[in-house]
Amino acid sequence: MAGASTHSHSHSAPAPSLSARRLGWALTLTLAAALAQALGGWWAHSLALWSNAGHLLSDGIALALGFWAARVEDAPPTQRLSYGYHRSGIIAGFLNALLLGLIGATLVGEGAVHVLRPEAVDPGPVAALAAGAIGFGLLITWVLSPTAGRDLNVRALFLHAFWDTVGSAGIVLAALLVALTRWGGWDALAAAGIGLAVLHAAWSVGRDSLNILMEGVPAGLDPAAVRAAMREVEGVEEVHHLHLWALKPGFPALSAHVRVTAAALAADGGQAVLGRLQDLLDHRFGITHVTLQLEAGNGPDCAPCGGPTR
């Protein structure tokens, strides 16, 4: 490639993972609630309690997976994994989304079948156990909430617990309706409603996880706006081969080829331009992991680099 060329890198440490102690407490509470609701579902012949118990058991599996991801994602890079294990949490989140989707579809299907063929349900134990599960769910969401907004792995776990709590509230309502109407189909409708809510959560987490795994543009960033702002920097003639992606939520990255004026390269090798670009990307767009390659303003197009040159 003709002309001067250099690379610039700036890095910032990602936010720390959720502590193992919090995940351990959440896992313990979840398994205890799952056992209680499974026994209650067997005793009261409640599909809704059985459904919620199954969902809680899946939460336990998800929490165990999340615990593994939280432990390894901040491990240092290796020769083979130069970025380290930052995406272990994203993989865990995606797997959890698949698990949520499977559970949600099962609950909707079973609920539909039992609405057509409702069984006798004892509403008293169902309401009591579901009310207790609401307390468990609120406690678990409180444990997970501090980092749910910036970690897709924890967000998936938080949504597991949140929809469990909502589902338990629906079971209480269904039990009251069964007591008033003596129709067991309300219990099955509650199970189907829980399934629909779980499917919605699975879609949300799965979509965001897949976007990161496919190295899509992070939410809130517009490549055209970033490119236009970079072009306005003094000494920059053109910006192309621009790529925006994220290693994980809150950790966006950028790489680009920047064509600079001959005067900027002659003055200090383009270091002043690099500094201005880094400041722009950091302060205006929150991008601190940056790789920029400078090209001489009077050099040929860098077609050998491949890909779009816009």
Task: Give the tags.
2 domains; 9 helices; 310 residues; single chain; disordered N terminus; elongated; 4 strands
Task: Write up what this structure looks like.
Keywords: Ion transport, Membrane, Transmembrane, Transmembrane helix, Transport. Belongs to the cation diffusion facilitator (CDF) transporter (TC 2.A.4) family. SLC30A subfamily. There is one protein chain. The chain is α+β, with helices and mostly antiparallel strands and 310 residues long. It is built from nine helices and four strands. It has a four-stranded mixed beta sheet. A hairpin with a 5-residue loop joins strand 2 and strand 3. The longest helix has 30 residues, at 152-181.
What does the radius of gyration come to? 26 Å
Please state the structural category.
Answer: alpha+beta
- Strand portion, in percent? 5-15%
Name the overall outline.
Answer: elongated
How many strand segments?
4
Q: Main β-sheet: number of strands, strand sense, barrel status?
A: 4 strands, mixed
Tally of domains? 2
- Average of pLDDT: 80
| CATH architecture label of the largest domain | Up-down Bundle
Instruction: Please tally the helical runs, counting DSSP H or I stretches of 4 or more residues.
Output: 9
Q: In the CATH scheme, what's the topology name of the largest domain? A: Alpha-lytic protease prodomain-like
Q: Element order, helices and strands?
A: EHHHHHHHEEHHE
User: Strands of the largest sheet, in order across it?
Assistant: 1-4-3-2
Q: Report the top-level CATH class of the largest domain.
A: Mainly Alpha
Query: Level of helix content?
Result: 55-70%
> Uncertain runs with pLDDT below 50, 5 residues or more?
1-18
User: How far is it from the N-terminal to the C-terminal residue, by CA?
Assistant: 17 Å
**The CATH homologous superfamily of the largest domain:** Cation efflux protein transmembrane domain
Domain Cation efflux protein cytoplasmic: 223-295
Organism: Candidatus Hydrogenisulfobacillus filiaventi
Protein name: Cobalt-zinc-cadmium resistance protein CzcD
Main location: membrane
